[in-house]
Amino acid sequence: LSSTSGTFSISRTGLFDSGLYLLDLTNTETSGNTVTTATYVLVKAATPSLVPTSLTFTDFDHRYRYISGVATVSFSSTSSTVGRVALYLGSNLTTPNGYLGVADVSGYAIEIQLDGVAIGSNTHLLAYSRNVETESSSPLAISLVDLYDTPANSIISGTFLDDDYTLGSI
User: Fold this and answer.
1) Other Cβ atoms within 10 Å of 46 Cβ, number
2) Number of neighbouring beta carbons within 10 Å of residue 85
3) Beta bridge partners of 93
4) What is the Cα 102 distance to its own chain's centre?
5) Positive or negative: CA dihedral 66, 72, 78, 83
6) CA 71/CA 54 separation, integer angstroms
7) Is the whole-model pTM more than 0.70?
């Protein structure tokens, strides 16, 4: 690389543990007996490769096709390439349809509160690792179980004793 008043040289490049790309570009200009050196550092965040290892959610909303509760997202280890977790509703294990929100990662697990979310025809909850620039390419997904669809108690058997002796009435 060269310029009209000096030369550029690249002294270091690489992907570091923090997931940041580093380019150290030095411009050395010569003017008379003076040498001026300027260093430019270009930083770009890498795509998060750490996918959540666990996602749990229990619905507490009794309304049909609405969910409320706490989604818990866990990681097997911490990574500085993951700063946040993004939650989506999905029509299957891999297709996000509705953005629910994002939460900062601190440690191995985070909790995200969902209150009265209309799920429509979506059947899954998807969690993506996210940093300042991008999300992981694949999510961790679980099936949504709407509390309205799940009976609280099932009748196994029953008996009835009619103690009204009038014919035709109970």
Assistant:
1) 15
2) 28
3) none
4) 6
5) positive
6) 10
7) no
pLDDT in tens, 126-155: 999 887 778 888 899 999 999 887 666 667
Query: DSSP characters for 72-115?
Result: EEE-SS--TT--EEEEEEESSSS-EEEEEEEEE--SSEEEEEEE
Rg of the chain over all Cα atoms, to the nearest angstrom:
29
Tokens at residue 87, please? Answer: 């939650």
Q: How far is CA 152 from the centre of its chain?
A: 31
Q: Which two tokens stand for residue 26?
A: 């030095």
Give the residue carrying structure tokens 């297709």. Answer: 95
**Parallel/antiparallel/unpaired status of strands 84-90 and 34-45:** unpaired
